[in-house]
UniProtKB/TrEMBL annotation:
Alphabetical UniProt keywords: Acyltransferase, Endoplasmic reticulum, Lipid biosynthesis, Lipid metabolism, Membrane, Transferase, Transmembrane, Transmembrane helix
EC number(s) stated in the UniProt entry for this protein: 2.3.1.-
Protein name: Acyltransferase
Transmembrane segments: 63-85
């Protein structure tokens, strides 16, 4: 009996020692700090955004096609019927959900870079506006964060103004992706959609257009600021037809988020990119950023670089149903000069040097 008790006592002492050793090991493990948790949430917020814009439409389409050949064929059939019935909604005001703009995830998205909005002049809610957003960059992070999410306080800075952002019309042909875009306040960059917001949606509407588009993304690289604008005059014509004021805006740091392989003009790769852009509507850029696990290895996530979007002074234009070419050219040149002034007045404040120039093609 004494032998058994002694053995049990020895085992108990050994178990206690093992437990104490395990507790010491556990306490020695470094716990995540609040800073580490915030960094992880910011990275996840950016990851979900990138995956949504790059894959949501394509993956949804593939899943629905697959379901057509299964016992769940009724689901894609009913959704196809819904899209046909709902086909024109993106060009008739969409279905914007204010709650989506207030998602906490967008605050983490904002803080990852971080993104900041700077106001230089008031915008009256008794007017409508076309905001020219420059530059395009690779994924238009500045335009999306400032004009679609409420994380940078656009509606607080400009009381009574509701911001919208236009994107490729083809995006609204992709299942589920179209619902996601409309709920956030994105619209097709078409005359009909923009005309609806500027003429049939009351006043206090600010429609942001990334004027350079896909062509401009081909020239996106750090340290070089090149805009495709000289022959982009449709936005000026729309402003004149609806009497909407023109507002230049510039996102400093947008071109620093990714590294791109830029092919020279006249090269066969550049020709393929331009041909693809004309057929599909967007340019197949060869770019890279950071990986999910490390900022030192390459991946598809943007680098954490500060973006500051400066919204300039509104430029009043007359309302004319059929503006002449000369009038369009006049206001287009006035817009370019206002954009150049906005860039030069703010470039040294937000990361550029006095010698940096804005190249407009």
């Amino acid at each position: 009996m004494k032998t058994i008790i002694a053995a049990c006592s020895q085992n108990l002492s050994g178990s206690r020692a093992s437990l104490q050793a395990a507790l010491r090991t556990l306490l020695a493990v470094p716990w995540l700090s609040q800073r580490d948790i915030r960094a992880a949430l910011q990275l996840l917020a950016v990851l979900q955004w990138v995956l949504s814009f790059l894959l949501l439409g394509t993956v949804s389409l593939m899943v629905l096609i697959y379901l057509l050949f299964t016992s769940f064929w009724l689901i894609p059939t009913l959704y196809l019927a819904w899209i046909i019935f709902d086909w024109d909604t993106p060009e008739r005001g969409g279905r914007r959900l204010p709650c989506l703009r207030r998602w906490t995830v967008w605050k983490h998205f904002r803080d990852y870079f971080p993104v900041k909005l700077v106001k230089t002049h008031d915008l009256s809610p008794s007017h409508n506006y076309i905001i020219g957003s420059h530059p395009h960059g690779i994924l238009c992070v500045g335009a999306f964060c400032n004009f679609i999410t409420g994380s940078t306080g656009f509606e607080e800075m400009f009381p009574g103004i509701h911001s919208f952002l236009t994107t490729l019309a083809g995006n609204f042909r992709l299942p589920l992706f179209r619902e996601y875009l409309m709920s956030g306040g994105l619209f097709p960059v078409t005359r009909r959609a923009i005309g609806y917001l500027l003429s049939q949606n009351g006043t206090g509407n600010a429609v942001a257009i990334v004027i350079g588009g896909a062509a401009e993304s081909l020239s996106c690289r750090p340290g070089v600021t090149t805009l495709i604008l000289r022959n982009r005059k449709g936005f000026v014509r729309m402003a004149l037809r609806h009497g909407a004021s023109l507002v230049p805006s510039f996102s400093f740091g947008e071109n620093d988020l990714f590294r791109q392989v830029v092919f020279e003009e006249g090269s066969w790769m550049r020709s393929i990119q331009k041909r693809f852009q004309k057929m599909v509507g967007f340019a197949p850029c060869v770019f890279y950023g950071r990986s999910l696990t490390s900022s030192r290895s390459r991946g598809f996530l943007p680098y954490a670089r500060p973006i500051t979007t400066v919204v300039g002074e509104p430029m009043m234009v007359p309302k004319m149903q059929n503006p002449s070419r000369e009038l369009v050219d006049t206001y287009h040149e006035m817009y370019i000069q206002a954009l150049l002034k906005l860039f030069n007045d703010n470039k040294t404040k937000y990361g550029l040097s006095e010698t940096d120039e804005l190249h407009i093609l």
